[in-house]
Design a protein that fits this description.
Length: 340
């Protein structure tokens, strides 16, 4: 086993004891890397809407107590046995997909995002709301040099899921609607625009700040989610966890158009007329990511270049970060910064 300078035996962490209960600021032992794992000194960890769904008990099987956080950027501090890549001090990113069995029919078919027995970072495995974390090195990625630690964090979920959603929306549709203009949208809008798509941004009614933010990132139109866009859309991606947006988006897309839901949880979808689905319109979800998505997107992002808009918040204020995300007070992505 190799390690750099000695680190303390305990670390700061924000721990979820039970859904709905504020995260507890505490000291817990620094984890030890097992076979194939690396110990990472966390430099930044993004706050994702999925964390809110875990916090609220809408995702029902978290490990408890749990350290949430699956947009982790940090530095390799120590290597467990059988780690075939990376060196001490390397900067790495850790996404939501933390482990797969490699043997189920989905893994064997190259669809590891649908693995029958997956483990997710910050859900089944302790994540990045802490000063250190361990991760299976096979699911970690080098981070492009262009980004600071905090700037890189939202690439690891908001960016990756946004990118996969865009692929499933048919690549680069001429007119792309995006419902919910937060962390994922602000990244995917830049990618789509750079590839020639027109972006139409839909926000909560009256959220002028989010609409201005969307326009500043090149959206040709921004309005309320209950408005009709000025032109019919080729495809739409929904990031807001609001089921009523499915029929709204179906109404806005053309014949054969695709509506992609990028979130892991959504409120109930209201009944709607078959007319909205008729003419080969498609509704589909995006689940998780593959490592291939991560490699593609992390290579693509700096070439565009995607710029991330981040709000840095001390790790110990994670509860406040979750509240601000819930209230829609953030333009871009909240990123937690531990002190070492
Ligand atoms: Zn599998
Ligand atoms: Zn996420």
């Amino acid at each position: 086993m190799q390690h750099s300078d000695m680190h303390a035996s305990t670390m700061q962490a924000m721990v979820l004891d039970a859904p709905g209960k504020a995260l507890r600021s505490t000291k817990i032992p620094v984890p030890k890397p097992g076979p194939g794992q690396i110990l990472i000194k966390v430099a930044a960890c993004g706050v994702c809407r999925t964390d809110l769904h875990i916090f609220d008990g809408e995702l029902t099987h978290p490990k408890l107590p749990l350290v949430m956080g699956h947009e982790i950027v940090g530095y390799v501090e120590e290597m467990g046995p059988q780690v075939g890549q990376f060196s001490i001090g390397d900067r790495v990113g850790v996404p939501w997909l933390g482990w797969t069995d490699g043997t189920c029919p989905y893994c064997l078919a190259g669809r590891e995002n649908l693995c029958d027995d997956p483990r997710f970072t910050g859900y089944d495995i302790d994540g990045g709301y802490a000063a250190f974390t361990v991760a299976d090195h096979r699911y970690c990625f080098p981070i492009p040099d262009r980004y600071t630690d905090a700037e890189a964090a939202p690439l690891l979920c908001a960016g990756l899921i946004g990118y996969r959603s865009l692929k499933l929306a048919g690549g680069y549709p001429q007119r792309l609607g995006i419902y919910g203009f937060g962390a994922a949208a602000h990244i995917v809008a830049q990618v789509a625009r750079a590839r020639g798509s027109e972006v139409y941004a839909f926000t909560r009614p009256g959220d002028v700040k989010a609409q201005d933010f969307a326009r500043s990132l090149g959206a040709v139109w921004a309005g309320a989610s209950d408005e009709k866009p000025p032109k019919v859309l080729d495809a739409a991606i929904i990031f807001a966890p609001v089921g009523a947006l499915i029929p709204a988006a179906l109404q806005a897309v053309k014949k054969g158009g695709v509506v992609v839901s990028g979130g892991i949880h959504m409120s109930e979808i209201p009944a709607f007329s078959y007319d909205l689905l008729w003419e080969e319109r498609v509704v589909r979800s995006v689940a998780n990511l593959t490592r291939g998505d991560a490699e593609e997107f992390l290579a693509l992002a700096p070439t565009i270049p995607v710029k991330t808009s981040v709000v840095e918040i001390p790790l110990t204020e994670a509860n406040e970060a979750l509240r601000r995300l819930r209230e829609g007070e953030l333009s871009g992505a909240a990123v937690l910064i531990p002190s070492h």
